[in-house]
Amino acid sequence: MNVSELSFGTWAIGGAWGATNDTEALKGLEAAMDAGVNFFDTADVYGDGHSEELIGKATKGKEEEVHVASKFARGGDINDPNTYSKESVTAYLDATLKHLGRERLDLYQIHCPPIDILKDGSVFQVLDDLQKEGKIRHYGVSVETVEEGLECLRYPNVKALQVIYNIFRQKPAERLFPQAKKQGVGILTRVPLASGLLTGKYTQETTFAEDDHRNFNRDGEAFNVGETFAGLTFQKGVELSSSLQWIKEERGTMAQAALRWILDNDDVTCVIPGFRNEKQVSDSLEAVSVPSFSREEQEKLTKFYLEDVEPSIRGGY
């Protein structure tokens, strides 16, 4: 399955990023497709299916050319083995397909399960069965840690791993990415802008809406803290981002530069920034055409990560 190197995640248009606007979201989806984007990532818990419904509406009649990935498990108890039974997974999948208005899903991902579930492996047999039934084309796993990703690679039919990867979160590139590439497994990189820190627009006084995960999950109160600000405290993240202003020189904005840095890694299949409107889609797409980072710049960013960032990351990675 060939997907556009810069595609989009749809958590923000489903919910948990403050106020949503369906009209603006649909315009953004249309703009992305008009620009050649052929892949969108979602999950059944993004707005309790609302994100899936928006994608279904926007891609109606384009089911063959526009690929969709969704996820399951977070709608139940992720620690309960019954959540991953054939009955449960089929129910999750049927609901997703109904929201999307599709008969088959291109990529179905387990949504950040505990490593014990991955080691048990029963869920992969369930996914094999659903694949044989023609309800899913491929399957993969969205993981929180490198260890979880490597565990997934023990299963031959896992075809994609979704990981947190950005300038503030470089560890997956060391061992996980090369091994995935060796096995022909796609890498989808999420949280590419560290929940907005890598736009360079935040200050220590910036606040977020009550229903925005950058408020309610700031310290991991709702789910893994790595999903919010890449595991950094907001204060530390703002401090670190202020020292990265140099990356935007000749690259438009800091956000475009941060996305370009990910695209420069040949082991990455695609990066999936979020969006809420057409302008954010257009701005992100510009990252494809801005200049790549030189070897010296990449070495500088690696040193910055190891010395200034890594010691402050929380959440296990």
From TrEMBL:
It comes from the Bacteria. One of its GO terms (molecular function) is oxidoreductase activity. Residues 5-304 form the NADP-dependent oxidoreductase domain. InterPro entries: AKR, AKR2_Oxidoreductase, NAD(P)_OxRdtase_dom_sf, NADP_OxRdtase_dom. CDD domains: AKR_AKR11C1. PANTHER family: D-THREO-ALDOSE 1-DEHYDROGENASE, NADP-DEPENDENT OXIDOREDUCTASE DOMAIN-CONTAINING PROTEIN. This is Aldo/keto reductase. It comes from Marinococcus halophilus.
